[in-house]
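User: Please look over both lines:
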Amino acid sequence: MILTIAAAVFVFGLLVLVHEFGHFITAKMTGMRVDEFAIGFGPKIISKKRGETIYSLRAIPLGGFNDIAGMDSDNNPAGERGFCAKPVLSRMIVILAGAGMNFILPIILFFGIYSTLGIAQPATEPIIGDVIAGMSAEKAGIKEGDEILSVNGQAIATWTDFTDKLKTIEAGQDVLLKYKRGDEISEVTVSPTYNEQEQRVLIGVHSNVVYEEKTIPEAFTLAIEHTKEMTVFMIESIATLFREPEQTEHLAGPIGIVQMSGQVAERGFIPLLNFAALLSINLGIVNLLPVPVLDGGHFVNLFIEAVRGKPLGSKAVVYTQRVGIALLLMLMLFATKNDLVRVFLK
């Protein structure tokens, strides 16, 4: 439980903090007055004013926030340096910068992993890498480093042999594994779990991995390519939710993300960094959706202002924001329902 909470705080905190830093740094660069940049929420622990901005550390370590003066045109104490008084292009840059940082963060994380460790490749030997907590392999006593020798009496030589044999197992059928741990050879019966999404049984293990070293330029190029591939994949996945509403049963909310954070953290810090990178991409994409109250919705309002030559009326803004809040609340409730079903009924 402690590991799950710590992992969730790290992931959520990093993603939101990076997002807010994007708004903060571009607001400064475009001459806007930023009254406060806070790390965390809630009561202040420490704070220091440098120039016109208060930099504070707050009690709840979940991201942070900016207080940019003049976000509301009816309340602009900063005059020409208020957000609402700046040119449309400057405001567009500030609005998009948060999501932009959520795409830059994965590049930084992937680059750090690739340049120090290299690229993880599945090992060819039938040696167990990660064992997923709560799955049948762990319950049967299988541990990381065990070498699988046979499946139901059939000898195997590679990891591919092992997975191919498991693919032939039917739901409800037990599997007899012979494995080597150190110098000792043992046998154990494992009861696989049928996975509806993959349409096959799983026992809850991953292959061992080896790392292929990369040069700094290679690591940087691969980090950009991987971020691009994941961005395209997630956009396609979101589009699938609109085309195939039944796929929304796989949508995860805060509870699901917290649970996944803990599961990934059990595999180590590097997998957690990979998970944070993928969530950052997802956060960036979602924030750019043209939904009122999200950054994408604010950008649409600014685009309309640029075309019309004047901002939308205050009533129109209020109404659209109410619709946006209602949509987000409905989505959050639906995702939370999915989380509760997965946690308590499956």
About this structure: The longest helix spans residues 314-345.
